[in-house]
Amino acid sequence: MGKSVLLLCGDYMEDHEKAGDICRTAIHDSAGYQTYTESRGHNFTLNATFDEVDFCKYDGLVIPGGRAPEYLAMNESVLDCVRKFSDSGRPIASVCHGQLILAAANSVKGRKCTAYPAVKPVLIDAGAHWVEPETMKACVADGNIITGATYEGHPEFIQLFDFMEDYEVTVPFQSLEALGCHADAVCPKKKGGDTCPTAVHDFEGDQTYSEKPGHSFTLTATFEGLDASNYDALVIPGGRAPEYLALDETVIALVKEFMHSKKPVASICHGQQILAAAGVLKGRKCTAYPAVKLNVVLGGATWLEPDPIDRCYTDENLVTGAAWPGHPEFVSQLMALLGSEVPCRCCVAGIRRLRAYAQLQCMSGWLA
To answer: In the β-sheet with 60-63, what is the strand arrangement from edge to edge?
Structure first.
């Protein structure tokens, strides 16, 4: 049986009501100012009721950051929950401002701990041994307590916790890294170190999804001169980018090369517009965001209805998903094609470094 993890949520956590309720999330990003900027993120649907939770049934606790911890740290029920996990020695993973809750629960005294730098004074006053984050990717483990500085450190954060978690560019990218893969993100006409703006596409009761600005996503390699033979798999995110990436002949040639070589290709949401334009869907079974059904059917594929929206399908070397709620299945099915399992902490360093290439362009609909 798999491990069971409790995720402690609150409104405006970084993108204890009852199951089915919504928590709003926020996107905190660096824009060159003295502090971060904030914009609206996805609406996150809760799947359990806080007052009815039996904490003994969970193997670990995850505390997201954002603005929620400021008031969750004043909730005695929340603090009691954290103390139960801390006293039992079960893993607690907290990131960014989540460490405010750990401090309020008196769970960091004598522990090595990092966090978003603004949280430093509180952690020191709570008796923690502060570890300065050299980069915003920094993570620290001390006993059963795992702390991270920001969402940028999710790959190591997830590895240390031994569980998977988080949207269409960042989630697969960081999940692949957390699972011991080397992942490169590239974009036509851009080089490694450049950034792409991303978009948050959410479902808020309208006939179509809404769009808001997301995080800036940093590319890790240069598209021009890319050698596809160096990679074991291809990942195609969704969003609005595929509309014009499907018109780029170098992108089309790359997709054809991966498909013709039978290497794993994982595409989600609107990413299947690129597959259709590349002419590689004929005779395949495929799902996508429902609005892309026309592209898929005209491309010669057998349409698989995404019901529910988090359904993903594998057809030979091709994994397709409908939208970001399907990330757990999407990443899991890709890893199955790669023949890889979730590594434990002791073997991460020695695992075979599979390579997956994440194809991204401006305004793709993915969020960290």
So the answer is: 5-7, 60-63, 92-95, 145-148, 139-142
DSSP 98: G
Provide the greatest CA pair distance for the chain: 63
Length of the chain: 368
Residues 6+ apart with CB under 8 A from 114: 130, 131, 132, 133, 138, 139, 140, 147, 148, 149
Q: Is 26 left (phi over 0), alpha (psi -120 to 50) or beta?
A: beta
Amino acid at 178: A
pLDDT less than 50: residues of the chain: 16-18, 162-166, 342-368
Q: List Cβ neighbours of 290 (8 Å cut-off, separation of 6 or more).
A: 306, 322
Is 269 one of the catalytic residues?
Answer: yes
Is 154 an active-site residue? no
270 assigned to active site:
yes
Active site annotation includes 139? no
What is the C-alpha to C-alpha distance for residues 39 and 31, in angstroms, rounded to an integer?
Answer: 12
E strand or H helix at 6, and its extent? Answer: strand 5-7
- What's the pLDDT tens digit per position in 135-173? 988 999 898 899 999 888 777 766 555 432 226 567 777
Report d(CA 179, CA 256) in Å as an integer.
Answer: 26
- Residues ≥6 apart with Cβ < 8 Å to 363: 196, 197, 198, 199, 239, 240, 241
Catalytic residue among 42, 97, 154, 201: 97
Q: State how far the Cα of 213 lies from the Cα of 226, in Å rounded to an integer.
A: 29
For the full predicted model, state whether its pTM sits above 0.70.
Answer: no
Please say whether the beta carbons of 227 and 350 come within 8 A. no
Q: How far apart are CA 90 and CA 104, in angstroms?
A: 18
Which residue among the candidates 96, 113, 181, 196 is catalytic per the annotation?
96
- 81, 269, 286, 312: the catalytic one is 269
**pLDDT tens-digit series, residues 200-244:** 888 787 767 788 878 788 888 999 998 999 999 999 998 888 888
Structure tokens at 183: 């992942």
CA–CA dist 265, 234 (Å, integer): 5
Of the residues 113, 270, 312, 362, which is catalytic?
Answer: 270
Beta strand 22-29 pairing with 37-45 = antiparallel
